[in-house]
């Protein structure tokens, strides 16, 4: 009973195109660039900190600048996605964040307070430009993937955050070591601008894509994909929503609120890794920035593998007949429990064991990072962009708090011990949310905010 309905047998894999996997590959590539551009400031951080004479607290605020604007721009970004569609909105997002990343390299022409102010301002602009990215990923996954493939799809594009470190942390570390910290921003910004134009060539809605055939379109539609999400030319016009009433309705839903708070906690782990982890390796463990760039890629490999494993496990449970709630929650809870192992690094002296423990923690974080699959499963069809944006607003508030809190902990205690406990405690709260607050995972039907 839990297997595909009879129509899927008629549209067998032999007759279906596989265009949705090309779409997923593009999402993965763009998200890899997205996270690499977020991490430029982390890899360049030690050299930049010394060059501009910043304190740990000042560096914490610079690290957090991205997240301030990223969070504030989430809801406008979600509105733009729902209003103009994912393809065009996302193109401008990629182009602009890459341009602002490239311009960050020119800060070397300034000194003192002007340089710091420009650095902060450009990171704000990068954050604002990236705001539509993950809600866009979720929206595209909702329109292209049937429910029983959506866990893996979300895990793949989400795992790009780890692949970005695996691929680009050594490259960016080498650039800083061989040239200077400015070169990192020039190279990564230029690469992003090229990818933006590839995006326009590859991405279309399911009904508009030139490569999809009728069999694949029918397969994904029968499986629960919202194939008309990117189109107003087919089917009925989408219902319009009152934006503020919709936000209020989404926030009043206990399931969604539990998911949102859990995402804040899970994203705390992400931002520790993106901002302070290389500094931890250099400052606490005495590594060179070149070595730290390569060492940082090892937990990232584990996180990438964990992300794929979590998505695979979730979809496997779904295909085996388990409810959506069970198939999503089991990997999340297991993953967050594994993530708490990073606290053990406070009691280990050997660098190799520290890296192994961090790798286990980030493997767990990868396994548990299924929040975007849950968003694709639960977002009301009329407000997928807004729902994803609200989810991402909660999540990336951790990008504001985590760098600053850790900056104060490190400056006031002289070590990262308290920081690791803080990050591990957030993983524990995420487990609590999914076990005791979220309840059944199901798609939300709007009742109070439709204005059709």
From TrEMBL:
Cellular component aspect of the GO annotation: plasma membrane
GO molecular function: transmembrane transporter activity
Domain (Major facilitator superfamily (MFS) profile) ranges: 23-442
UniProt subcellular location: Cell membrane
Species annotation: Pseudoduganella dura
InterPro entries for this protein: MFS, MFS_dom, MFS_Na/Anion_cotransporter, MFS_trans_sf, Sugar_P_transporter
Segments traversing the membrane: 21-41, 61-81, 88-107, 152-175, 181-200, 257-277, 289-309, 330-349, 355-375, 387-410, 416-438
Membrane topology per record: Multi-pass membrane protein
Pfam families attached to this UniProt entry: MFS_1
Protein name: MFS transporter
Top-level taxonomy: Bacteria, Pseudomonadati, Pseudomonadota, Betaproteobacteria, Burkholderiales
Family per record: Belongs to the major facilitator superfamily. Phthalate permease family.
Keywords: Cell membrane, Membrane, Transmembrane, Transmembrane helix, Transport
